[in-house]
Amino acid sequence: MLKRISIGELFAEFIGSMFLVMAAVSSIILFTVVLDSHISVAILANAVTVAFVLCALIEIFGPISGAHFNPVVTMVMAINKKIGAMKAALFVLLQIIGGITGIIASHLMFYNEIGSLLSVSDTARNEYIFFGEIFGTFILVLAILILVKVKSNKLPIIVGLLVGGQLMATSSTMFANPQVTIARMFTDSAAGIRPIDGMVFILMQIIGALLAYATYRLIFSRFQLQ
Hints:
The protein is an all-alpha fold. The chain has one domain (about 1-220): Glycerol uptake facilitator protein. Helix content is about 70%, strand content about 0%. It has helices at about 5-35, 40-65, 70-80, 85-110, 110-115, 130-150, 155-165, 180-185, 195-220. The longest helix is centred in the first third of the chain and has 28 residues, at about 5-35. The protein is globular.
């Protein structure tokens, strides 16, 4: 089983996850700390940055690993029998390591402003914000499942636009990704999240992903109403 898992696939998930987190965190640091922009401007810049970078990363690494970069995407692909359990577990591990590496890289680029490579966030994101993660993850995972099913050649641009748009349209600013959530627990920038809130975010993301998979199965069900 292990012999069927290419090092290239794992490395693609690592690199893609790293640069995804760098895009999400570095843009916030640049606009809030370096450029001293209002948080509303930073969120707009963050949405555009993540959309552009995610689109490019999917186009680059999609043919290699499928460009998951997201444990809940890997989870539903495993449930849908698109990848095996061992590969899924290794993908998730490399995604998490890649995300944390992305935080270190972001902090290194802005070390004069941040002053540390890793630090535990105390930024609260709680209460009704949690529901944003269910909705954001639901539409992201459902879109990916449907686009893969219909063999769309526009998946990178559609997913990029969807994430960028939802980042500005959800109360949680669209984490929708457990590895990104874990990584953002280790930055004290405005992009961070308290570990206790991050754990709830991850639970909401799993719920959203499972609801998306159930909806996907319903959409493509062979049963017809008479």
